[in-house]
Amino acid sequence: MGAGMKAMNLPLLAFREMLHRRINFLLALLVIAVAVAGLVGALAMLRMHGIATEAILEKKRVEVAEAVAKLEDDYRKITKGLGFNVLILPKGQSLGDFYAEDYAAADMPEEYADILGRSKIVTVSHLLPTIQCKFKWPERERTVLLVGARGEVPMSNLEREQPIMPPIPPGRMFMGYELHASLKIKPGDKVVFAGREYIVDRCMKEQGNKDDITVWIPLRDAQEILGKPGRINSILALECRCAWADVAKVREEIGKLLPDTQVVEKATEALTRAEARSRAAKEAKDALAREERGRERIRREYESFVAWAGPLVAAVAAVLVGCLALMNVRSRRSEIAILRAVGVRSGQVLALLMIRAALTGLLGAVLGFAAGFFGAGAIWQARSGAEPVSLEAAFRPEVLAATLILAPVVTCLASWIPAVLAVKTDPAAILAEE
Amino acid sequence: MVLEVSGVEKRYFKLGREIGALKGVSLAVEPGRIVAVRGPSGSGKTTLLLIAGGLLRPDSGKVALDGSDIFGLPPEGRAALRSRSIGFVFQQYHLVPYLSVLDNIRLPALAMPTPDAMGRAKSLVERMGLSERARHTPSELSVGERQRVALARAMFNKPQFILADEPTGNLDDRNTEMVLNCLSEHTAGGGAVLMVTHDARAMKAAHVVYILEDGSLRAA
Ligand SMILES: Nc1ncnc2c1ncn2[C@@H]1O[C@H](COP(=O)(O)OP(=O)(O)OP(=O)(O)O)[C@@H](O)[C@H]1O
Ligand SMILES: [Mg+2]
Fold first, then answer.
1. Half-sphere exposure of A267 (CA within 13 A, CB side)
2. If you average pLDDT over residues B91-100, what whole number do you get?
3. What CA–CA distance (Å, rounded) separates B78 from B72?
4. Judged by CB atoms within 8 Å, which residues 158-217 of B form the interface with A?
5. In B, which residues are within 8 Å of A335 by CB distance?
6. Model confidence, pTM
């Protein structure tokens, strides 16, 4: 026969009362649900914001990781294969002149080559100090590019198959194509150059560049001919390898080691690419860090907002709920008095009022959580350009648990004073009222 | 068990003016007895009933149940005593508006767990001739029906004493007779009744009738 058959108990009484005084109950429910919805909604938005941020950052991280992987691959190729090439010039040498004239007018000590060779900064496969100068071959009335080389001999085009030639033996000379072709000189011929006798050791093939008008002789001879003993004007370091696959760093370290020099990379294709990628990877990393910082800042602002708005909303809701509870116990004066008159203990009356508060709080929490959570989801979805976030991912059971515990607790606390006032009131005064 | 009221005085203060409601009232309610009190409006009848039932503390004097002062008990002890030994019928009935007739009648079961509370409530409904109204709420009842529900509630815990404030005030002859029969059955079973009434039939059913006038009690 329904509820009527059940044993009389406090929760049942509380439930009936809530149905009877619907307006008060629904108002309290509304206050609680709105407060809970606001807070849960804010937390859900925060959560979805976090998830979306993580998704975006994860994409960026993958991009950065890919860029870095490519870069590392390039550096591995460089360090394993050719390494990179570095040209060291005296500081005063204008780079414009150097490229236009193809030789350095300024000079520096020859021992720089040995310092570099001994340094721990780079491992150099080929260290090629040279002195080079445009020079009028007095015996032949020809302007040649005179190159004095120690050890192996560099060619001007490093990308070609054989970028370097073996060392020049003493008293020997290498001769460029244009010179030996026009002067009809063959390997083994004797020539006189600036008063010195040389046997032509090699006649070069046609290169189509300044090598065709170049005469290569041992470094010491060239220094003496040019009147610059112990001086050189360039060091070419080929196939350098170092701990840092970072050319800028190498340049800086060499600069420190050899004062008054400038370091020019004779970039290979791989190196150029590597540098571009290095820049790209750095930019990507910077962008990622900026994005992370920005998002973190927004999240913190939002969190601090929730941190002060949360208690404020809870306090306002508690005051409203307390007022409604006061109105409720005022309208139940005679009912409470009759309970007391039939022998119900004041503790039981207090329990009755607290059960009502807890039930209201619990129902408000459920409704408010549903409204806040799904409302936040709907708002998020409706926001144009927002990263889609699944509701399951945004759901946090601890927030639900806290809501289901805190809302009834706060409602009970807010209803406590009115309840105690109601219980303390003398029932006789009410029951005697005409 | 005997309920004894001795030398009870009660003054109310309203707007700085003192109203002497009771000025040294004594009476005893013994088992098997119906004691009736009548008197003009405002003479302090309801006040006397509330004091006798331990709901209202007198300014002086004593209310004793088998010799022990019930106002010497702490409030919770008095509540337990009421739930065990005293049933009230209020002038205003004070029914719980959202409970059915049956639930209103078994309300005292909240204070004291009662075996087969529902069965007892139903038998009381039948005795009061309210079977047709068992599921109705007080607002759906006539005043006379409400009065009978209030009496049924007072009888639910089978208290030794029933204190009733005009229990037949709004009843027709047939229902007055039914209520008085109930009260007589109650005293026949060893219980006692203290009632306020203006009804001649009710006073006829009483063993002792007092008149309360200007706060003082005298035999009729
Ligand atoms: N709570 C109160 N505060 C102030 N005065 C009160 C209070 N209750 C009753 N009185 C006054 O005490 C006097 C006695 O009241 P009481 O209710 O006992 O009268 P009564 O005999 O029951 O009257 P009625 O027959 O009209 O019910 C009245 O003058 C009343 O106005
Ligand atoms: Mg009265």
1. 12
2. 91
3. 9
4. none
5. 94, 96-97
6. 0.67
